[in-house]
Amino acid sequence: MTDRNDRWGALLSRANRGEAVAYAAFLQDVTPVIRTIVRGRSSAEAENEDIVQEVLLAIHAKRHTWREGDPVAPWLYAIARYKTADAFRRRKGTTQVPIDDLADRLADEAPGDPTAARDLARLMDGLDDRSAGIVRAVGVEGESAGEVGARMGMSEGAVRVAYHRALTRLKKLAGANE
């Protein structure tokens, strides 16, 4: 690992001084490692190469942030980790798994508790309209805090705080009804 870090450090140092050949050699050396990191963190084979490209672009944009003399691998791994996590966030909820072959093995889901919706509605009556709307949008309908905030004229952070506080009030109301 030290030899690789030393090699990468020397190449990146030269690249940061403007040597295009050293930069090309650096990217050729690190790309297989990045590809392995992305594959290890992602199950979406079709998107892996796109994520690798995003990591390489981030390295290019942030190469000036690497401090000469520090090991390159931790800096590189952090960029790969963050870019992979960003890709997961962007695709949240869009994972598609074909289940046609598994349909006979999958058990039918029993319908949910028929009284749950009624109970939730009663609990939500104990909240103010804004809090109830936020809980309904984020917790029930699955909207993001950003979407709800844009619609309600609130910041994303304010929506998260209001949502958390409303859930705390709902929990207290549920405890009082037991």
From TrEMBL:
Domain RNA polymerase sigma-70 region: 31-92, 123-172
Database matches in InterPro entries: RNA_pol_sigma-70-like, RNA_pol_sigma-70_dom, RNA_pol_sigma70_r2, RNA_pol_sigma70_r4, RNA_pol_sigma_r2, RNA_pol_sigma_r3/r4-like, WH-like_DNA-bd_sf
Keywords: DNA-binding, Sigma factor, Transcription, Transcription regulation
Recorded coiled-coil stretches: none
Record family assignment: Belongs to the sigma-70 factor family. ECF subfamily.
Official protein name in the record: Sigma-70 family RNA polymerase sigma factor
